[in-house]
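Shipment paperwork, digital attachment
Item: protein structure file
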Amino acid sequence: MYNSGVTRILLVEDDHSIVSNLTRYLCDEGFTVETAGGQAEALEKLETGQHDLVLLDISLPDGSGYAVCAAAKANSDLPVIFLTASGDEYSVVAGLDMGADDYISKPFRPRELLSRIRSVLRRSGKSQTVLEVDHIRVDTEKGNVTRHGEEVFLSALEYRLLLVFFANKGLVLSRSRLLEEIWDAAGEYVNDNTLTVYIKRLRDKLEDDPQNPTFIKTIRGIGYKIGH
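Attachment content:
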């Protein structure tokens, strides 16, 4: 049974480098991320999608982040964190006056932004830090994993790989996609055999019967998935 779900973030930013790096980082931390490169696209996604928090650049190529903030607050009072240019005090004050919940100046450290996100989610009552699929429970705030109520100790790479599965529950992830995730976490080249080793380690620690896995399922010729 899937409990609470994964926190859904709308990232509104036109800097492709920030979008790419931040999306990967937040997905590794257990969030799902939808992106928009400008005001018009962000407003459309707010209307058609479901989100738990908005990360919002104030300066957008086709308008202003202020309009997006106003829409987020008007539609469902979504928490908003502004991404601002360093030292732009006027933008910070204007954003907070519009109801933004927090701001962070560029360039920022990802861990600091993560802390701000979790703090805002807690204050807004939208925090979804406990994820559960079948007999596996992950508390992303505490960083621990339990199996049938008993704590399981994972290496950093095993934990990050597990978070990738949780962030994509029900979706089939190809071996190449998972290899990219491991490579990013390890900071060095890893090969296909490495992925096989980590999948085996996770199954040994999480499955009731590692030889007949029901949690991390193999989809022959495609990859792996968890959930239904």
